[in-house]
Amino acid sequence: MAQKLLTQVQCFGASVKGPLHKREGRPNEDAWEFMRGSFGTAIVVSDGMGSKPNARTGARMACRAVKEALQYWAKIEGASPVMLLRLVHILWGMRVLPISEEDSAATCVFAVVVPSGELLVAKLGDGIAAIRESDGKVVLIGDERTGFCNQTTALGIAKSTKEWSVITRPSLAPGAAVLLATDGIADDLIEEQVGGFIKFLVEEFAYMEPATRWRALCHELRNWSTPKHMDDKTLAVLWHQKDDLGGAA
């Protein structure tokens, strides 16, 4: 059962530098990663706070900290989501050394399907985390408001795991998908658009050959439809493909 689930739960994503950073000659300060292991299948996105001197490294280390935390967490029977979040904070703090945590502040949003099939989605800071159920219903994690205004919390700023928004589900049903994205995308989506956007991403990109898909996604993000968009843009999708459809690795 676990092995079958690993092949059915798939991931993809992309990240591009925004026009502002291109103009200023600065690097992309977003990061993302997908990962598989004994802990299951996961995706993570992070946005380094642009006002911080170590923002790019902070975002990259957030992705690595989530992966390492999942590896430790999966080995502890009955470990709670709070333990996982504490591990992320500790490991990220170690990875950004010798630079201070405050100067490396970065948001962190991740989703994991563990071998039992359970889904966990966690969000710290701005951006978006959303689940589109197989029936089209959309659940937003940590956004009890209209629109997607900036939040100030992040790794390097948060003082407690209580600042995270977390949701768990017994499973991610076939045909369902999770979207994670930084605020360069989230700020241009209204709530009513989220479900359609996730559906578009899965239908348009999910079953492409990986290298072709990455190029197509980057092209889509660089040619973002919102006028005068400026921010770096990063998204990652985790979805449970239906048994009657083929899928990309």
Automatic annotation (TrEMBL):
**Where in this chain does the record put each PPM-type phosphatase domain?**
18-212
Q: What is this protein called?
A: Protein phosphatase 2C domain-containing protein
Output the lineage of the source organism. Bacteria, Bacillati, Cyanobacteriota, Cyanophyceae, Oscillatoriophycideae
The record's annotation in Pfam families points to:
PP2C_2
This chain's source organism reads Plectonema cf. radiosum LEGE 06105
